[in-house]
Write a structure and sequence with these properties.
heterodimer; A: 241 residues; alpha+beta; 10 helices; B: 242 residues; 11 helices; 59% helix; globular
Chain lengths: 241, 242
């Protein structure tokens, strides 16, 4: 249903690409092609603000990402700090009062509308997907749906890239994130049991499901039922908790 | 007939939660709780559009209702989905009747199995757009009166207004921002429920109660409490009151 488009976006982003490095770039390029926008940026976020650009389309998107990084203000920064989407269909009208420095720069660069989507899974904040457009106007319902599907795909990709850093699984296996209450609750339990952050807990839950070739929902239910515990496993960082 | 004083009290309570530190998950949970109390139904649940073509269950007052509503989403058939698609209210449907079985062949037997006899679904409408639905269930074969249904629809309308509480120049933009934020808040609360359950050795449902109680006691929003749990700044001792 909902995830079919996300799966499609993910599989075309990794299609034929042997390395993880190209996937985010393919995703932003596909996003810019699928939607009536001028440029797309995918930025990583930390609690302190923008933490780097993962991928951008050619042209104005890079200027926009740099501008926000330099000024420390703008829709992407706000989107990241509040965790809310920031939809600005008419930047000239609503931007200057909100982000004076950024708006001036964006308008000068010919940008008239910005749509920034937080890439988060509840308490896990990964980054922001920024859509820039050279004309004012809202996204239609269908365009919003498409933008949200790209945001979901980007979220799954960023989670997966974290997973790769901790040396699990292959690029070919980027999966749509399962949005079920049990999965989120199990993530919370694992974070306490293993003494790790929520993002790491989700990665571990997914890795366990992948390694045991079981649906993540089944593993999550085992965690909730006490049948599976992460209290003493994966103690590879030596903190012993 | 609902006592008008009680009704007024509930709407004041809901309006009260709308003004400052609005918390969408807490608000919708309170709203469905009051819906059950006011209308004498046995369970209520509320679903919102995810703006990706689907619905997401935001809240349910009873575990068996929650399971049934998730089942409804899974099999893509049932009163909430129909109400969301058509925008029309669905009221007093007896689930054991042949009519219900024809209408929702998979959902109806599952609902009966879950112990429900009657179902109702009321649309959350906003200027020609449907953004969700309020679903209610009765265990017994009782009918909601027209005035009960009017109250239920008023509750659904309050839920819609709640999502738009920051009235602003651009309604559609605000609505999208709010809907997406609501979906993430729900996930955040689920993660925090799991963390509290592990910390305190209780079930996720009990963890949710403890978080709500902590929020009330300390005048915090549910999202604040969930965020503090996820950050690790809220400890078990602080949550579980002596």
């Amino acid at each position: 249903m909902t995830s079919a488009r996300v799966t499609q976006i993910l599989s075309s982003a990794i299609d034929g690409s042997p390395s993880a490095k190209d996937a985010p770039h393919r995703l932003v390029v596909a996003c810019a092609q699928a939607l009536p926008v001028t440029g797309v940026g995918l930025a990583l976020m930390s609690s302190g603000g923008p933490a780097g650009t993962v991928a951008i389309t050619d042209g104005v998107a890079g200027t926009m990402e740099d501008l926000q990084f330099t000024l420390g203000e703008g829709p992407c920064v706000e989107c990241s700090s509040t965790g809310r989407p920031v939809l600005q269909p008419d930047l000239a009208r609503t931007g200057p009062g909100r982000w004076p420095g950024f708006s001036a720069g964006a308008l000068e660069a010919g940008i008239r509308a910005i749509f920034a989507f937080p890439l988060r899974v509840g308490g896990i904040s990964l980054g922001v997907l920024d859509l820039y457009r050279d004309r004012a106007g809202e996204l239609s319902d269908a365009e919003l749906m498409e933008a949200l599907s790209f945001a979901d795909a980007a979220t799954a990709m960023l989670i997966h890239l974290q997973d790769q850093a901790s040396d699990h699984s292959e690029l070919a296996a980027i999966e749509v994130l399962e949005d079920r209450a049990e999965v989120h609750q199990a993530t919370g339990m694992i974070s306490v049991q293993a003494g790790v952050a929520m993002a790491e807990a989700l990665v571990r839950l997914r890795a366990r499901a992948f390694a045991s070739e079981r649906p993540i929902l089944d593993v999550a239910r085992d965690v909730l039922g006490g049948g599976v515990s992460f209290a003493e496993t994966y103690d590879d960082d030596g903190d012993g908790r | 007939m609902i006592e008008s004083e009680r009704l007024a009290h509930v709407f004041v309570e809901l309006a009260d939660t709308l003004i400052e530190d609005f918390d969408v998950v807490d608000f919708l949970q309170t709203l469905t709780d009051r819906c059950v109390e006011l209308l004498g139904t046995d369970a209520a649940g509320l679903m919102l559009t995810d703006q990706r073509g689907g619905l997401q269950l935001m809240t349910a007052t009873l575990e068996r209702a929650r399971v049934l509503e998730l089942f409804e989403l899974q099999v893509e058939e049932g009163p909430c989905l129909e109400c969301f698609t058509t925008g029309d209210p669905i009221t007093n449907i007896e689930l054991t009747e042949a009519e219900a079985n024809q209408r929702w062949p998979v959902f109806s037997p599952a609902a009966v199995e879950a112990g429900f006899a009657v179902t109702h679904a009321l649309p959350m409408r906003l200027r020609g757009r449907v953004i969700g639905a309020l679903n209610m269930f009765n265990d017994q074969q009782v009918e909601l009166s027209d005035s009960d249904i009017a109250v239920g629809q008023a509750m659904a309308d309050v839920a819609t207004i709640g999502l738009l509480h920051q009235r602003n120049t651009n309604e559609q933009t605000i609505l999208s921002e709010q809907l997406q934020t609501a979906l993430h808040s729900r996930i955040l609360v689920e993660q925090a429920k799991g963390a509290v359950a592990a910390l305190a050795g209780v079930s996720p449902a009990e963890a949710f109660k403890a978080m709500r109680a902590h929020a009330r006691r300390n005048n915090m929003t549910l999202t604040d409490v969930a965020t503090a749990v996820v950050d690790g700044t809220l400890t078990k001792d602080m949550l579980v009151s002596a």
